[in-house]
Amino acid sequence: MNPKLTTPARGDSRPANAIFRRRPAATTLAMLAVVIALPLVVPSATLACEILIFAMAVLGCNLLLGYTGLLSFGQAIFFGSGAYVAALAMIHWQVGLFTALLLAAAAGGLLALLVGALAIRRTGIYFVMLTLALTQMAYFIAYTLSDWTGGDNGLLDVPRPPVAIGGFTLFDLESPLAFYGLVAVLFVFLYLGARRVIDSAFGSTLLAIRENEARAAAVGYDTRHFKILAFALSGAVTGLAGALYAMLLNFAPLSNIELPMSEQILIMTIIGGTGSLFGSLLGAGTIVILGDLLSALWPRWMLLLGVALIAVVMFMRGGLWGGLESLGRRRAGAARKTQEDA
Amino acid sequence: MLNVYLFQILNGLGLGMIYFLISVGLTLIFGLLNFVNFAHGAFFLLGSYLCYTTVTLTGNFWLSLLLAPLAVGLLAWLLERSLIRRIYHLPHTFQILVTLGIALIIQEVSIMLWGPVGKSVPTPELLRGIVRLGHFAYPQYRLFLIGFAALVAVALWLLLERTRFGALVRAGSESTETVSLLGTNIFRLFSITFALGVALAGLAGVLSAPLRGANPFLGPEILGVAFVVVVIGGMGSFGGALAAGLMVGVVQSLMASLWPQGSSLMIYAAMAVVILLRPYGLFGRA
């Protein structure tokens, strides 16, 4: 019954992440290289920040969709509330950078715990509908609490506090490049953390739930418990991303907590490659860069996302990562063949 | 004072009939095809825009009432033949993603064709006046809307309950395999039902155009409400879609002047509660 998004590509009997799991070191190195090269390659450090911030949100989404098989339209709740909580704490309580980020992660995690606990009481289409209804509720709540959230105008003047210990400022984050440094360190930390979670027994159980929940339950796992925990982790990561996004923009718009935000995160996850952490970086990077390049030239570039979404589901389940992987495999296969021939 | 409430309730019934037309298509498609159509709101949008274009070109609303649903239905039929039928066998997750892609494409193409700002559609000349009943006055078009949608509902009911086609759809909703084994071309039945369901969304788009105009960003909102109606009414239930559609319409209309966000909050909360407590809907069969 459980929907699998990482069904192997045609003519390939291995799961999409089998190769990837054998070479985690290689992809980790590739990830590090991308993170270091990003501000040098893309037009601005702000854009680089945006890529990594969305890549974090996509990591969170991937944990649910790619590794547990849960299609959640609730990601905007965690992203938006992370942004609001961090911004409000900084504005009203003058908390520092790390306290604000921790609060955002906690808020995202707790809300995800709640959303997860409710939504997983149903499966399939009803599960999806529940996450959708809860996102709509969160949006209208944020809209109604306009004294706090600024409603339609968004929450203005969100500060970007410096990295400080005990009131002593270590780094100022005002320049986009300095802020990129912080975002990059957090991203690498979260990526490696996600890697560890996925390689742990916990992660294997999530995969088992994705592949066949009934069987995982029959073996004796309390699958509900695992699904709720996956939600909480996903929510915490997404909330943190939301907080960083508010700091980047100095602004927390209402659209953070709107359904299209959930869709955007989902689309990045799917186009990058479900069930691949590096795919998360690829998906977020491709779409943020495409958006930046094309939105000025052709405001209707979202049309391409619709086409890409259909194409990925119909022909390339592994997304960009899956495409790269099968390309690599084909070349490796060809090389081996020429060696044998020689 | 009472007249104000009567006015709002009548408005709510009109809105509710529009919601019914959208949702009944969604629910028919889900019932027979077991297919989740996230592009349903986008087809509604297309209906509104085709109405706008027809009215702008010919000045004839009645022509658009005929042509727009037909055109939307034809597009749906083509999509079904080319794309949708390839994903029936996939899990709902994939169906949601593909139709989400279709919705995105329709929305962006609509903006390309008609611009990012909404268009307003004039009320047809024949129905610009008001109906008086003693002290109570009500716009003719809104009254027409309720009556016309009710006629469509009756016709649809007759189609489903009294014709061979309807019998096949109902039987197919119970067991597609059996209907197929008994010698019916199930794929043709699927195409027609999909086109019919989507055409109904297009019709709803036409009927609502003189009231709300055509706006490219209306799709997701309409889709959300349609899912609320379908879930509360029970997926696959005709009567449920009617009852829940009217209920949601009247609630939204009564709360529109008091607290519009509150009514949206309420209907989505109601949807969540129904899924959790009565997953087959208030009117659906278990």
UniProtKB/TrEMBL annotation, chain B:
It is a multi-pass membrane protein. It is found in: Cell inner membrane. Keywords: Amino-acid transport, Cell membrane, Membrane, Transmembrane, Transmembrane helix, Transport. The keyword Transport applies. The chain crosses the membrane at residues 6-28, 61-80, 92-114, 141-160, 189-211, 265-283. Pfam families: BPD_transp_2. Its main location: membrane. PANTHER family: ABC TRANSPORTER ATP-BINDING PROTEIN, BRANCHED-CHAIN AMINO ACID TRANSPORT SYSTEM PERMEASE PROTEIN LIVH. Belongs to the binding-protein-dependent transport system permease family. LivHM subfamily. This is Branched-chain amino acid ABC transporter permease.
